[in-house]
Fold these 2 entries.
Entry 1:
Amino acid sequence: MQIASHSGTKAILEKYDIHARKSLGQNFLIDSHVLKKIIRAPNITSDDSVLEIGPGIGGLTQALSECAGQVLAVELDGRLVNILGEIFKDCSNVEVIHSDILDFEIPTHINKVVANLPYYVTTPVIMYLLENFCFESITVMVQKEVAQRMASNNKKKDKSYGALSLAVQYHANASIAAFVPPNSFMPRPQVGSAVVHLEVLKNPPVDTDKGSLFANIKAGFGQRRKTLVNSLYGAELYPFTKEELAAIIVGCGFSENVRGEELNLSDWAVLTEALK
Ligand code: SAM
């Protein structure tokens, strides 16, 4: 039986008398087309050891176990951990762990992450994975707006572009693998979703001090409508006068009235070096 289907999910929820917990972001995937797109984006093969965050009732876990060498599934809800243990008892390549993903020590042999993430904790989980581990790729279902922010490079001057886009770009090449409507889940969420695929970079794409870079980016996006010179001056990160900051910005080749949202990651790195 395919779990990630309307009938499969309904049968399991009824059999185990499970009511989805909204507080844990439990919206189970019931659309096999979306499932295929999630699996296809990272090209999972039997050589891969995959970490799944939040397996729920196992819809995605089942699909992963059919193509990956190993699936390590980390679930916070103890009720579901027991059920998953029963569902996958004969599946030798699936291991289910009861833990909060943010407290779990991820083994070093894991090379890919795949998840339909609980939306309440999306950004902290993605940043935790990007900043602390070296995976080949991370493929996650997230809220549509978050996916657009993660994947924006501002080439089209879109409103999604911001500090999260730059934080993701520092670690990975991001692309949207699929847009997913609310009726692909049970229960239906209020918002649209999207699958984001991150190909993790071996080295950062820019060469500058990371702490200073992101302190500048945070200041630059703090008040989007302000010019960069006013944002940086207001953030009091440097002992420069407004005129000195303006001269540095112009010296980097940007207009005196440039806004933070007009700079790409390389521009931010150039500015960070100039502000040193
Ligand atoms: N993977 C399943 C699917 O696609 O149908 C369920 C996805 S559901 C959106 C998110 C799952 O993450 C839920 O099962 C929830 O209990 C679990 N979860 C929530 N917070 C978690 C955390 N901090 N660590 C691990 N799992 C978590």
Entry 2:
Amino acid sequence: MAQKPYVVDKMISAKAIAARIEELAREIERAFAGTDKLVVVGLLRGSFVFIADLVRELNLPVEVDFLETSSYGSGMESSREVRILKDIRGEIEGRDVLVVEDIVDTGHTLNHVLHLLESRHPKRLETIALLDKPSRREVDVKATWTGFEIPDEFVVGYGIDFAQNNRNLGHIGKVRFTEE
Ligand code: IMP
Ligand code: MG
């Protein structure tokens, strides 16, 4: 199926993202002060740029792990049914864990992942999402920390894709179709 033509309008600049990550890192450092090691779990693939910048800003001992859930498929609609495609490699029982998500949209993904990780009895489990679209929520879940709340727009860039495109954009932009 051919993709309808679209352009990407800038929404959040790379500079604004970097500044917000600095603020968030200080809050996370305070929350996990004294930890022996923080297990930072990135949800693939959308969080790969965010987690890379976030861990480099964190003055804490960290370990990095990844978990992949079934995605949006190739379009813009959430599948709602969340499946684990790749589990984390490490044990998290009794450990400090931070889940890193790109966007909380309907909330199904984060909700599913939190229940799964909670069942493994971490000492502490917190979450950070770069973006939050509260108006789209279908299940009652909220990340501990959020970078930016955004309206109901389909966004790309900074790791986030539209049908696997635009992940390499340095800023966050919204998709605007140029013809009907
Ligand atoms: P949720 O399960 O509906 O909360 O969706 C979460 C996942 O959907 C996110 O991790 C993203 O990968 C994807 N997603 C949600 N909104 C967007 C968007 O605007 N652009 C690209 N991907 C999105
Ligand atoms: Mg995702």
